[in-house]
Write a structure and sequence with these properties.
The complex is a heterodimer of chains A (117) and B (108). Chain A contains no helices and eleven strands. Chain A is mainly beta. Chain A is globular. The model of chain A has no long low-confidence stretch (mean pLDDT 97). Classes of the chains: A mainly beta (117), B mainly beta (108).
Chain lengths: 117, 108
């Protein structure tokens, strides 16, 4: 099982961004992909998840409306999209594999997003 | 919302036993999972379903969960165990996962 994320990004306030998470080594549609934020020096925060089999999504109230999670099962890739970045979005974003009540058993390497004002 | 509370830091001498707690309302009725995160690295699952270990995780890592506290126990602590540790459960009412705030383990 492997999750490979896109590279680091440097953006400006108000710009849009989409980062990716490509899965391999397992049936992509049998597990959810979840996104987790880690702000500098801080802990892990669950942002939301997608079921790639039907593209249904769930979001943390803290992030709903600010990010969009999507997936393309034809290329085994999940996405986290920001429509208008803020400096407070500066963080490392991780994707991870999970399923209902199961742990996050495989993680991507993380994508560092830096947003300047 | 469901809240998990961890001590910010735990310190232990090499060879001793470290215990990291995770407090939550009736957490014993849920399955607790634990992640290790070393500086500059992604988290790694070290204990799942309260007391199971993924393949490749040393037997020195164990867990328990009862009442309002889940505990990660690291026996015979080594310098390489120095890391951040996070507990996690699923809030079944919202169907959302919840993380504890994290505990930094320092090996003296």
């Amino acid at each position: 099982v492997q999750l490979v994320q896109s590279g680091a990004e440097v953006k400006k306030h108000g710009e849009s961004l989409r980062i990716s998470c490509k899965a391999s080594g397992y049936s992509f549609t049998s597990y959810w992909i979840t996104w987790v934020r880690q702000m500098p020096g801080k802990g892990l925060e669950w942002m939301g998840q997608i079921d790639p089999s039907g593209s249904s999504t769930k979001y943390s109230p803290s992030f709903e409306g600010h990010v969009t999670i999507s997936a393309d099962k034809s290329i085994r890739t999940a996405y986290l999209q920001f429509s208008s970045l803020r400096p407070s979005d500066t963080a490392i974003y991780y994707c991870a594999r999970t399923y209902s009540l199961l742990p996050f058993d495989s993680w991507g390497q993380g994508t560092l997003v830096t947003v300047s004002s | 919302s469901y809240v998990l509370t961890q001590p910010p830091s735990v310190s232990v001498a090499p060879g001793q036993t470290a215990r990291i707690t995770c407090g939550g309302n009736n957490i014993g009725s849920k399955s607790a999972h634990w992640y290790q995160q070393k500086p500059g690295q992604a988290p790694v699952l070290v204990v799942f379903d309260d007391d199971d270990r993924p393949s490749g995780i040393p037997e020195r890592f164990s867990g328990s969960n009862s009442g309002n506290t889940a505990t990660l126990t690291i026996s015979r602590v080594e310098a390489g165990d120095e890391a951040g540790y996070y507990c996690q459960v699923w809030n079944t009412s919202s169907e959302h996962p919840v993380f504890g705030g994290g505990t930094t383990l320092t090996v003296l």
